[in-house]
Design goal:
binds NADP nicotinamide-adenine-dinucleotide phosphate, Ergot_Alk_Oxidoreductase, single chain, NAD(P)-bd_dom_sf, seven-stranded parallel sheet, NAD(P)-bd_dom
């Protein structure tokens, strides 16, 4: 049995669909179940995690805390160990653990990734760049000026996650990007070919300090990274932004 956390979210919903397409047994974890194959689970409720994880072999772990603390991940890992889960694939973020201007980037992801690595479970950590789907927000808040990102189609992240859930890439940290680095204004220009996009520039001084480090890291050019990991894992190129835009337009 595969447990998909974040199953109502951007990548979890796609991971579920891909596993079902392969005829594999899937349980989706959400705080508000609405499908027969959903189970109620809340990272802040250990009892619900124990119940959601019963009989699970491999889990896709997505956390999205409002404040950057690793508590949700640590609670899930403890419950997974107690339930005898064999393998976890965790969604982290590009740049996690790098030191920039004296601070560790994404410390909550860093702590959770390290805890998973030290858990004794089989593990894979996915560190994607900016999701293309961020451009579907209304408006799009541009935190990073003209800085470029190896923007990635979340469907590519989900496809890599499935390979990892099936047991490939154990003990690997996979930095995932699209095939080209584009700034938010450049992404907006492409997406406007297919649908309207409103972009609002944000002064980084106004960003919550707990999230600002990653923004300044990107503005300094460090997110302009393109890897071949998606192609290496999937045996086909990562999806170009223009192709993703055509799909959602
Ligand atoms: N967006 C990007 O560009 C980007 C880039 C790199 C990495 N990431 C990482 O991707 C991750 C996902 O972020 P996202 O914003 O795209 O979120 P998302 O996966 O679209 O949605 C968040 C999911 O978390 C679930 N959830 C929230 N609180 C929960 C709780 N207390 N217990 C159980 N489930 C809970 C929600 O399920 P229910 O509401 O149904 O319970 C929802 O399915 C984050 O860790 C982020 O750092 C994002």
């Amino acid at each position: 049995m595969f447990l998909i956390t974040g199953v109502t979210g951007t990548t979890g919903s796609l991971v579920r669909r891909l596993l079902l397409d392969r005829g594999l047994p899937v349980r989706g974890m959400t705080r508000t179940p609405s499908r027969p194959d959903d189970v109620r689970g809340d990272f802040t409720s250990p009892d619900s995690l124990a119940s959601a994880l019963t009989g699970v072999t491999a889990a896709y772990l997505v956390t999205a805390p409002e404040t950057p603390v690793p508590d949700d991940d640590l609670a899930f890992l403890a419950a997974a160990q107690a339930a005898g889960v064999r393998r976890i694939v965790r969604l982290s973020a590009i740049g996690t653990g790098e030191v920039f201007e004296g601070s560790v980037l994404a410390p909550h992801h860093h702590t959770a990734d390290e805890a998973l690595r030290d858990s004794g479970l089989e593990w894979t950590v996915l560190r994607p760049s900016t999701f293309a789907t961020n451009m579907l927000r209304t408006p799009v808040y541009n935190l990073t000026d003209d800085a470029k990102h190896g923007v990635i189609d979340p469907a590519d992240i989900a496809a890599v996650a499935v390979e990892a859930l099936l047991g490939d890439h154990r003990g690997e940290v996979l930095t995932l990007t699209g095939p080209e680095a584009l700034s938010v204004p450049e992404q907006a220009a492409v997406l406007r070919e297919f649908r309207p996009v409103e972009v609002v520039d944000v002064d980084p001084a106004t960003i919550d300090p707990s999230w600002r480090g990653g923004v300044l890291w990107a503005r300094a050019g460090h997110s302009a990274v393109v890897t071949d990991t998606v192609e290496r894992v999937l045996g086909r190129p990562a999806t170009p932004f223009e192709q993703w835009a055509r799909k959602v337009g």
